[in-house]
Amino acid sequence: MTDKFTNEEKNGLYKAIHSRRDVRSHFISKPIEDEILSRILNAAHHAPSVGFSQPWNFILIKDPETKKRVKESFEKERERSSQLVEEPKKSKYLSFKLEGILESPVNLCVTYDPSKFGPFVIGRSSIPEAGLYSVCCAIQNLWLAARTENIGVGWVSILSNEMLKKILDLPDHIIPVAYLCLGHVDEFSSKPDLEKKGWLPRLELKDVIYFEKWDKKENFGWKNIQEIIKTNLDYP
Amino acid sequence: MTDKFTNEEKNGLYKAIHSRRDVRSHFISKPIEDEILSRILNAAHHAPSVGFSQPWNFILIKDPETKKRVKESFEKERERSSQLVEEPKKSKYLSFKLEGILESPVNLCVTYDPSKFGPFVIGRSSIPEAGLYSVCCAIQNLWLAARTENIGVGWVSILSNEMLKKILDLPDHIIPVAYLCLGHVDEFSSKPDLEKKGWLPRLELKDVIYFEKWDKKENFGWKNIQEIIKTNLDYP
Description:
The structure is a homodimer. Chain A is an alpha+beta fold. Chain A is about 35% helix and about 15% strand. Chain A has a 4-stranded antiparallel beta sheet, sandwiched between helices. The radius of gyration of chain A is 20 Å and the shape is globular. Chains A and B meet through helix 1, helix 2, strand 1, helix 3 and helix 5 of A and helix 1, helix 2, strand 1, helix 3 and helix 5 of B.
């Protein structure tokens, strides 16, 4: 398989990456078409996985009773975590809309099963977390595929995993990695919500790249790329 | 931003997902163009991150001395981990080419910095691992962007993170998440190496999807999609 990408195909990937959003407040009630949902789940299933262990499972949820219980866990955790931050940030934090559990037509819990094809998985004996990392790659595949299908995805991480395990009957050894809200949206925000609202700024690319060793921002052998990453590389 | 994707753009994303490979043995020595490398690093930097914390750093490496030391760590860990598996699988495992550290023109260590914008990060107080998950999403963005640019990426997870921290001068609180090998390739394999070589089979999509609760493969409310995911959804 040596086929190159056309400019438009390549653009499709970059467009998905740069216009993908964590969606909380723009869901509409229109159901997700089963063909679309299947395609984006299949995209997730084709993520890289350590030792080809494919250690993920996807639990599709639309039962209102389940959603209600998950939403209760969110509210409890949000209240608890708000105690960790001082005013005026606390009030700002509490004013944010941070989930769309009830409004989104489909909820999806993505889980990690360390026992799949185990105990010996190639590449997992030195870095045991590598299995979890594979599941995250699957989530990002799903997120990008959803964006091209105009489906919004929101990741709710203000939750108790212990509650989630009870609500979804997860066995002890299964780790919930993500609880996602999926649905059609009326729009995708031009920027991440927390950037728009001035919570935190977007870091500059040049500030997250080092050369050869930690914290080295200058290196003669990388002179040209040092210049390029100082320019604004944002997708138009 | 409500712009839809054209069919070709959408296809570009799915093509990247389904033709992306973990590359170990197809690197060629041609250097990576700085413009391409900048674009794929920028794609990584535009991943989702918990509380918009952007907790990643990217250390670009081409120093042969560094590569040599990382390769030594790989060899030691491979030897150690081979003791965990019985014959005949052990010999098979040892026969696999599992990294391209020296042959690939660029190595890249992707790290997680929990202190960035901390200690309070929205969404990280209930699930502390969420910061690590963000870094993995960035890695998958990079991997897909690289594929559209015809750059191969291989993730080496048979390594000692302790050694890596020493080699790259990482401070104590910084976690190395991935050590990647990047370069132009002579081809992308049609299937994952470990699938091709009969190490493990590709799971069927229907076997990783549950409905409403763990392990529930049948649910009347999800009847239509149950049928769809039984068919072969593989990208052509």
